[in-house]
Amino acid sequence: MFYREAGQFKTSYEADMAVFPIRQDRVGLAIILAAAVALPPFLDAFVVGTVLVPFLVFSLAATGLNLLTGYTGLLSLGTGAFMGVGAYACYKLTTIFPQVNILVWILASGFFSAAIGVVFGLPSLRIKGFYLAVATLAAQFFLEWCFVRIPWLFNYNLSGAIEAPSRSVFGIPIVGASATPLARYYAILAIVVVLTWIASNIVHGRVGRAWMAVRDMDIAAELMGIRLLRAKLLAFAVSSFYCGVAGAAMMFLWYGGGEAKDAFSINLSFTILFMIIIGGLGSLLGAFLGAALLHLVPIFLKFGLPELGVPIGGATAEHLTHILVGALIVFFLIVEPHGLARLWATTKQKLRAWPFPY
Amino acid sequence: MLYQVFVDPFVQMADMPDLLVQVLWEGTVAGVLYALIALGFVLIFKASGVFNFAQGIMVVFAALTLVGLHENGVPAPLALVLTVGVMYALAWSIERVVLRPLVNQPDIILFMATFGITYLIIGLGEFIFGGRPKAMITGELFLPRGAIDVQMLGGRVTFQKLDIAAAVIAGLMVAALAVFFQRTRIGRALRAVADSHKAALSVGISLNQIWVIVWFTAGLVALVTGIMWGARSDVSFGLQIIALKALPVLILGGFTSVPGAIVGGLIIGIGEKMGEFYWGPLVGSGIESWLAYLIALAFLLFRPQGLFGDKIIERI
Amino acid sequence: MSAAAPRPGEALLSVDGISLAFGGVKALTDVSFDVRKGEIRAIIGPNGAGKSSMLNCINGFYQPQQGRITYRGVERRQMRPHEAAEQGIARTFQNIALFRGMSTLDNIMTGRLLKMKVPFFWQVWRHGPAMREEIEHRRFVEGVIEFLEIEHIRKTPVGRLPYGLQKRVELGRALAMQPELLLLDEPMAGMNLEEKEDMCRFILDVVRQYGTTIALIEHDMGVVMDLSDRVVVLDYGRKIADGTPAEVKADRRVIDAYLGVGH
Q1: pLDDT (mean) for A132-159
Q2: Can you tell me the distance from the alpha carbon of A239 to that of A138, in angstroms, rounded to the nearest whole number?
Q3: pLDDT tens for residues A242-290?
Q4: Taking CA atoms, what residue in C is nearest to B312?
Q5: N or C: where does chain A have the smaller number of CB atoms within 10 Å of the terminal CB?
Q6: At what angle do helices A53-65 and A284-299 cross, to 10 degrees?
């Protein structure tokens, strides 16, 4: 009853092609955005810092990978390394030019990731599908090696890791020890909202369509005049850009530095991949849903269960996480290969007819 | 600079030939062990068209089960038998719970499902056996210890007896598998299934049975691999990442070729060790972590189907 | 060499001495024929005669080992897929090659991708030049949708459509490219009588309204006789007959080929 389109007529192609053609969707999105801005000050700082900020970082990285794997069909296992490139690029940029706004550098570091992404995407002209994944593994391991072996990257720190310096925006510290979780949250919220909007624009236009054609049947796409190499390299570039920004955000707005060489390992690549598999390949919403689920499960097991009185050690929680994640992936692939996003879309379909069964 | 890259390493090799032989041997051993893991992949891929990413963790799980049982007082021979049983149970459950529902899905979905299986087994392994590394029970399994020193080429080359045993065992395994595929009725059925599920079904081959057999065989290979790998270093979850090295091996050798797995393994193993030893110091050590992938990548660019694989002809 | 646009009646496409082999299998041996502008040229022959391979060569998907392809007056040794599309050659496929993840509308819109030129910078913002271009091409595509009478399924994911409609959508996608030469690979396969009649009607309309030249592979002899202006017959990769439908129908070699008389 709430969710019907009756009475919403589209009188122009532009209206028909809107990203959210149904009014209820637009209202829903507005409510979510409003909540995202207005609610967090009332939440516990710990929740903001360990739940919301990482969730946004993961969502951004997942969006990036989704553009490459979900929309263009190029399986990549190098996400972690591309995130790392962004983080180190940001670190170098901000230590060389400390007076420039850190947000600018976080966004700029994406371009470095994009460049590296293009280089490692070049084989995609000759290599397809699963073999390409192995090429991305080369990127992952090579870049990881670089992060450790090129001391210039971490400014010759004894710790061998990025140490995020204090940075402020408009007088409010958002990086470093004095930055509150809330400040960091708003910084990354702004970044994620803008970049997601841009991603949406790209996939709904000709670029997104070309990408999906390459994914669905690249031979046919080529025979229709789509330049495969250009489309694939663009996908690598844009995807790596998003991952780079996410990596920079991860180091500067979430972690505050440290442990960099372990942070961007192949495990991170897999984590992000699982997020988009569960969330739904080829769906922007899916990136968020998958990130939410995969991020919340371990938190729930680690902190939520003890809160509810179930005694469970930290290590056990981790083990259970692995089991649950594995089971979830298998479950989704069997039951709904298009992930949570499809489940959500199906629910909305049913809502359209609700309370009538069809 | 050019001298350092293109001339000096070879000079070094010629200068100390005994060292060269040592490095070659180390590479061969590593290659043989990679080949063992690759074999597991080849088996499953050949017979079911599924690239079982979980092979690596199956190796670890098999080793953990064996050691875990032994730790709890089970004598080695019995522990071996029980582990075989466990691997069978694992194969059966994977077939039943994961593969059967996904039988008609595109390959990439099955591939991703094996990611899920991998994580599940990791979690299970951690849960049951704890996360700490363990030592392989080499003595109880009658695996040799110690080394043989050979005086040759102006110096001394050391061959670990365990390594020799590993090479021999791997060789036997490959021979047995090759015979199995070519000569037996089941082997033929496996090849039929690899070609086309639907066609195999239509001639009455039971896919479910075949898949259980295949995954079980892969489980056995995993057990042998786990024992050999675990004997050389400890049994830990770090092995799982090393298993990723099997991918370059498969790319070189082709995904469906048993001899290819050996050749690929040797090329990667030797290439890696030589690269690390003679060229590594030029750029900073540790290039072993990515050299194999680079070799595979270079290969893919020139010969996308690997050395032994079937040429991919696309039809539309 | 500049491309000279042929007039109706002149050869738009001609293939000379095309030979194509895959390893030991000879798909085509020394095949030569031409297609005149504005005509409907049928390519027929028993299964495995090499008909689809011929189309694939014209399209640039296969590179023949020998022979030349002359299109719009420009002779080339091989055609690249991208070139073929840019030059105005569009095609449908024997086993439908639609993009299954997309709707009918989006599939047909991909046919316009060659003509969509607004740079990436504007795609990022969507509203502005990118949107204007989208609307302009949407308008054209709606024209194609109306022409093929598929308005009712424009938002349906193509994977859910029945076979006959999928074939129609594929035709729409090819038409969206505004091709000069349209290659149809068994456009009526698997259709019932009514669907075939519709498809015939569409093909004739395409030629009449847009002056498109058509080369089609077809097994239904009735369709071939009714629709086509001239026919080429292939058998075991060789051309065995070339002429009007009536001539070809009476040709002894053609009858033998179809009856499977030994060679």
Answers
A1: 84
A2: 17
A3: 999 999 999 888 887 666 567 888 889 999 999 998 898 888 999 999 9
A4: C22
A5: C
A6: 140
By the 10 Å C-beta count (0-12 exposed, 13-18 middle, 19+ buried), A32 is classed as exposed
Round to whole Å and give the CA distance between C14 and A21: 49
Spell out which residues of chain B touch residue C95, defining contact as CB-CB under 8 Å: 316
Per DSSP bridges, beta strands C238-243 and C181-185 are: unpaired
Q: What is the CA radius of gyration of chain A?
A: 21
Residues 6+ apart with CB under 8 A from C28: C18, C19, C20, C50, C53, C54, C57, C64, C234, C237, C238
DSSP assignment letter at A155? T
Total beta-carbon pairs less than 8 A apart between chain B and chain C: 6
- Backbone φ and ψ for C184, nearest 5 degrees, come out as -115, 120
Round to whole Å and give the CA distance between B165 and B170: 8
Give this prediction's pTM.
Answer: 0.89
Residues C125 and A201: beta-carbon distance below 8 Å:
yes
3-state secondary structure of B178: helix
Domain that holds residue A178: 44-265
ipTM over 0.95: no
Residue B265 clears pLDDT 80, i.e. is over it: yes
Structure tokens at A23: 């009014």
SS3 C35: strand
Spatial neighbors of A93 by CB under 8 A, at least 6 apart, are A100, A105, A108, A109
Q: Are A261 and A144 in contact (CB under 8 A)?
A: yes
Q: Do residue A148 and residue B286 have CB atoms under 8 angstroms apart?
A: yes
**Number of structural domains chain A divides into:** 1
Coil, helix or strand at residue B152:
strand
* Nearest C-alpha neighbor of A239 from the set A269, A216, A267, A261: A269
Identify the DSSP state of C81.
H
- Do B316 and C95 make contact, defined as CB atoms within 8 angstroms? yes
Q: Strands C25-36, C213-217: parallel, antiparallel or unpaired by DSSP?
A: unpaired
Please enumerate residues of A whose Cβ is less than 8 A from a Cβ of B.
75, 123, 126-131, 134-135, 137-138, 141-142, 144-145, 148-149, 219-220, 223, 266, 270, 273-274, 277, 315-316, 318-330, 333-334, 337
> What element of type H or E holds C66?
strand C66-71
Nearest CA in chain B to A129: B108
**Residues contacting residue B14 through CB under 8 Å, at least 6 positions apart:** none
CATH entry 3.40.50.720 includes domain C1-88+179-263: no
What are the structure tokens assigned to A151, written together? 């001391």
Per-residue pLDDT of B21-38, as tens digits, reads 888 888 888 888 888 888
Q: Is residue A34 assigned to a domain?
A: no
Domains of chain B, residue spans: 2-243
